[in-house]
Amino acid sequence: MTLVRIHEMTEKDGSVRIRVDGNVDQNSLPALRELCEKHFREGKTVSISLQGLMHIDAMGRDFLLSICDKVQLLDMPAFLKLELSYADRSCKQLRE
């Protein structure tokens, strides 16, 4: 069973912060993808807080890597930093 909570907040400067809690996998990923793509189309600055992330599958990992240069990834758990850095070293956020 997929358990994810995606919370969207608009900041005072008009940017959008998306908080993800739970599991990101093939079942929950479409909701996150659609939300991000909506804000990209609108030209908004997007940040994603991943502090509450408990699990991510390969599809979720690949999605985050594909948008790494379009968003600011915040509060990444250590397991996710490690997994992303092994998968792709081109994301500058992973080198900081």
Helical residue percent? 25-40%
Quickly give the CATH architecture: 2-Layer Sandwich
Q: Give the overall shape.
A: globular
For this structure, what is the CATH class? Alpha Beta
CATH superfamily, by name, is STAS domain
The total tally of domains equals: 1
Low-confidence stretches: none
- Major β-sheet profile: 4 strands, mixed
* Strands, total number: 4
Tally of alpha and pi helices: 3
Structural class: alpha/beta
Helix and strand string, N-terminal first?
Answer: EEHEHEH
Q: What order do the strands of the largest sheet run in, or round the barrel if closed?
A: 1-2-3-4
Radius of gyration: 13 Å
Distance between the termini: 34 Å
Strand content: 25-35%
**Averaging pLDDT over every residue, what do you get?**
90
Named CATH topology: Transcription Regulator spoIIAA
Give a structural overview.
The protein is built from three helices and four strands, in the order ββαβαβα. It is 34% helix and 32% strand. It has 96 residues and is an alpha/beta fold.
Key descriptive features of the protein:
96 residues; alpha/beta; Transcription Regulator spoIIAA; globular
Helix-strand layout with pairing:
Layout: E1 4-10, E2 16-24, H1 29-41, E3 46-56, H2 58-67, E4 71-74, H3 78-87
Parallel strand pairs: 2-3, 3-4
Antiparallel strand pairs: 1-2
What would you say about this model in short?
The protein has helices at residues 29-41, 58-67, 78-87, and strands spanning 4-10, 16-24, 46-56, 71-74. With 96 residues, the chain is α/β, with parallel strands linked by helices. A hairpin with a 5-residue loop joins strand 1 and strand 2.
